[in-house]
Amino acid sequence: MIRILARYSILFILTLLVLAVMSFSLAYLFPGDVLENLTGIVPANDAQRLALERQFRLDQSYFIQFFYYLSNLFAGDWGYSFTSGIALRDEIGIAMPATIELATYSIMIALFVGIPLGYYAGMRCYSTSDYIINTSSITTYSFPVFWLALLLILVFSLQLDKAPLSGRISLLFDVEPVSGFILLDILLSDMQNKSLAFKDALSHLTLPTVAIGAVSTASMVRITRRSVIDARNQPYIAAAVSRGLSGWQIFFRHILRNALLPILPLMAIQITTLITNTMIVETLFSWPGIGNWLIQAIYQRDYPALRVGMLAVSTLVITLTITVDMFNRLIDPSREKYEHAAI
Amino acid sequence: MMSSVIKRVAVCAGTALLVVSCAKQNKQPFYNTGVVYCSESNPVTFNPQLDTSSTTSDATSHQLYDRLLDFDPDSGRIVPSLASSWLVSENGLTYAFQLRRDVAFHTTDFFTPTRNFNANDVIFSIDRWRLESHPFHNVSSGSYPYFESLGLADNIADVTRVNGYRVEITLKRRDSSFLANLATDFAVILSEEYAAQLFEQGNPSQIDRLPVGTGPYRFDSFRKDSYIKYLHHEDYWRALEGDAADESLGDEPLGDEPLEDESLEENSDAILASDRALSTEENVANGEDLNQATNEKAPSASVKQLIFDITPRSSLRLAKLMTGECDATAFPAQTELEVIRNREDLTLAEKPGLNIGFWAFNTQRPPFDNPNVRRALAFAIDKNTLLEAVYFDSASRAKSLLPAASWAYQNDADDTAYNPVLARSLLAEAGIEPGFSMTIWAMPVERAYNPNAIKMAELIQRYLREVGVEANIVTYDWKTFRRHLQEGLHDSVLIGWSADNGDPDNFYRPLLSCGAIPSGTNRAMWCNEDYDRLINEALKTEDLDKRRAIYHQVNRLMYERLPLVPIAHAYRYQAYRNEVKGMTINPFGGVRFGGVEKVL
């Protein structure tokens, strides 16, 4: 157990270190001044430039520079945005939770709708209802997510006027960011129109969540269905049937658990897709998340923001992937034969 | 059995989603407590003195601040604002302003005023851009483009405080457009007390980031690329004044001075002898006229917030307007106008803007130095077709430089008409052979006064071919284009001008005076002594009728010499939802939200 944890932590730390090296080297690879790319501060005069260069150890070897960069990253001093002049840590602190919130609700939909549907289809495989579920999931899965989002906007926002098409909540509401999750923040706040704000935020959430959730759900249905069918074909099921167990007993005792095991590692792979989809859909719904923020940074050539943004997003993906994988390893003893940690 | 459970779950989930997605529709009164305006970009600063872009003045000028004077949006006349009345000396060099009392500055998280608006604030606000030695002059960028482009600072000899509520400005030369300049979006009044406080804290640049003014809304928060939040200013003077007038009509204000209007005349008699002859309309306006005169009202009590939702994409602004996420939007694109007109829940307001699109000839290059050649080319084109094809009828035909919104507009000004026969004969007289070739420079960017210069150039090219002139269309990227124009490399150019204030001088001087050739706004490179003499003369009198007569003379001269062909004055558009009441287009600058409210 401890060995597993140790292995995963080493993998985690090493990956992050590589990422940090990459983000540090971006300061040199981006066009423009290294000091400005690294700090986001444009020195007003030569004296200030010298002072900053000394402060950021730019007059010393790359190794020392990188070491200082790392210590700054840990201290939360991530530099400043070129365009807004705000500390990047604050900007990411607002944008990141918005993305995570959207992704969380979408994965919830995928889990609570996709897995039961997949089980249902798997249990009834090659029946009419299975064909319907399977066809619709394949269709949804093959939709490009941005197209689906645009379609939702066109139908539900512009034609039917049922849902707003941009932002997290009507700007009239003043929600103090505490957790960064808008629904949670509304519940935590002591505002007057709490229920109205909550409804407003939900209506803003609906379309983007559905757009991202639909694609994730579709793939979840397909994975689960396949896994259930595989489990049903196992000899121990035939044995259980021959022992005279009822359909429900077989399902709960044998199929449910055994089919879940192969799903988990596949979910780890899904996380990358999920985050990517979230970032795409964000830009369409003007959701103030990290994807939207990064696109703005690209447009405005905000190099410090790109550098830290890339680090933040990849850290998020790596963290989630490794966590799911480790969890998977811990609960599935059959994987013990794999000595090394892997992503 | 299992399937029925799953079905039930599915039905429940489906219903839940539907309920959520429909929830938004029943409009709660809460949504009427704020106005959301979809603006096109981030303001550069929160002090319009520092920037001339319309985004900055839209976001700040009429929301956060007041000026000494305002333009009446309908007539273009100058009406009182923070100055309740004013007086110009007979030699036109001394302007005395009587200031309004009981005008409160914003109380915000970062500043609590201890006193009301007075003469010190006026002096501070003007001295900041006027005096290079002023401690706040170099704060932020230290450049005040509007005032610098007019050389206003050089013309002001002194700004003095007569007493707490009277300020006197002395000019070096007569300038009858001076009052108009004080009424522009850029001449806002800042708080001297706030500035002093920041100076003491060693943080003077905060004055332009966390603004304090006297306007109908006060600053709350700003997030770049996202939103600006303003809150209702509870003690806004126009609101208080309305109440006071209702309660006690004709009551004398308490104070250590006599009633303002009489006192002003008496005192100014003492200061500048024999001023009584001046016409009352132009120089003295009293507070009672004010409420009828200005359209800028207090924010209605129901509107507590004003939000600028920063949305750079025009199509997205339109979409948000349709779904009701915005109540009003900036700059709808020409192609979207039809969509807005066809929707019942939206209103499209239009008004001729203070701009002009024109076709200027380089009068320093032969054969365009010959007025007859210029006239011939002007007669060769059909302006009405250009209006239809390029502006989609969203512009009015231009006869002189001035649009109809200006008080000096001449309705019966001479105008060239489409007459290819006359054009051909004029060209023959001037000795231009058929097959003569020239260039038309078409600006590469889209502007209200010319949304598609290249298309216009192509149309003109066709017209010119009919009279035997071959035109080549030239265009560069915008920066190079302007540099080459300034160097005078063009034969003719399609370009235009947007004015900053309602004064006619803001059109005539920068566009065609000799002095405007080096500064690069005189695209015709035209220098005419009579023209310069006339427009200078017009500035030496305050009498509007006299000035108008002079400008009519100027129009006549322009028609005869035709250094440029005026083509169109584009309309300004504003799209808003029907729930929004009290929106008016302000042709003399930024959008105004004072007095705007929402009703179901």
From TrEMBL, chain B:
PROSITE patterns: PROKAR_LIPOPROTEIN. This is ABC transporter substrate-binding protein. InterPro entries: Peptide/Ni-bd, SBP_5, SBP_5_dom. Residues 247-266 are annotated as: Disordered. One of its GO terms (biological process) is dipeptide transport. One of its GO terms (molecular function) is peptide transmembrane transporter activity. The keyword Transcription regulation does not apply. The lineage of its organism: Bacteria, Pseudomonadati, Pseudomonadota, Gammaproteobacteria, Alteromonadales. Keywords: Signal. GO terms for cellular component: ATP-binding cassette (ABC) transporter complex; outer membrane-bounded periplasmic space. The keyword Signal applies. Belongs to the bacterial solute-binding protein 5 family. It comes from Alteromonas genovensis. Pfam families: SBP_bac_5. It comes from the Bacteria. Residues 78-516 form the Solute-binding protein family domain.
